[in-house]
Amino acid sequence: MRILFMGTPDFAVPALNAVAASGEELVAVVTQPDRPRGRGYTLTPPPVKARALELGVRVLQPERIRGDEFASVLASLDPELIIVVAYGKILPKNVLDYPRFGCVNAHASLLPKYRGAAPMQRAIMAGERETGVTAMFMDEGLDTGDIILTKKVPIEDADNLEAVHDKLAAAGAEALTDVIAGIKAKTLTRTPQPEGATYAAKIEDGDTLVDWARPAHEIWCLIRALSPAPLAYTLMPDGKRLKLAAAEYSADTAPGAAPGTVTSIAGGKIAVAAGSGTVYITECQPEGKRRMTSADLINGRRVAAGDVFRA
Fold this sequence. Notes:
The chain is α/β, with parallel strands linked by helices. It folds into two domains: 2-200, 3-Layer(aba) Sandwich (Rossmann fold); 205-299, Roll (Methionyl-tRNA Fmet Formyltransferase, Chain A, domain 2), CATH 3.10.25. Helix content is 27%, strand content 26%. It is built from nine helices and 17 strands. Helix 1 (13-20) packs parallel to helix 2 (47-55). The longest helix has 25 residues, at 161-185. The termini are far apart.
């Protein structure tokens, strides 16, 4: 079976590995163009490109996949199946309609919940205890296609975005392995998505600012959902940002403490009163500084009991 793979970030690499190991013919990999990254704005290939080159697979990086130019390339590749994992662009109808076995996407949520750009972050922020990967046949809607199968993944208390990302990337590879096997065996089923869809909007800067009037559990979920990047943040008394990389929480609140008040710095943890409960910051990154433990920030006398963090 001739397979075209379309993907870009780290999340898609395990899926690419699974397709390459399937024994089918991987005709090419389509990924986003190289982009400038880092302080030096060095032109950097996406992770999928780097892995594809290691595998010896042809790599294509079109700026546009709409129009005659890519249509001609698609016809020359003549894929029977297109697999899409976090490619980053919406596929036009002529691409969706081309392969005889369709276009299959591995989406990082249990659809129809968390359609859209940030399903992992939004699931953690919402306090979900379970998420997963949905393999689906793509259509012209945003993550609206018929479901082929799902792989469920627990979200543990110790999991931040990085941990959930890695779990779901592995689950996506498993899901696509099963899809390829199902196509070969002619056993795939397709189920229209049920009602109850939710949308996982892209993370914007306003989403990362901590509102200390919220319950401690919600703030804890926010911190986990945005770690290791872009990181939730608060404003210190001098107005500078303090990014929050790791935290714990308790339902107990110091009596009379207004939300955002540092109630304790004991034990190397910065205890901050929330709308209800207390958040204990354990790792942070002051503006212009490296990531550090809260104990280091405390020892540097940059925070003290009685300080008030602002939203």
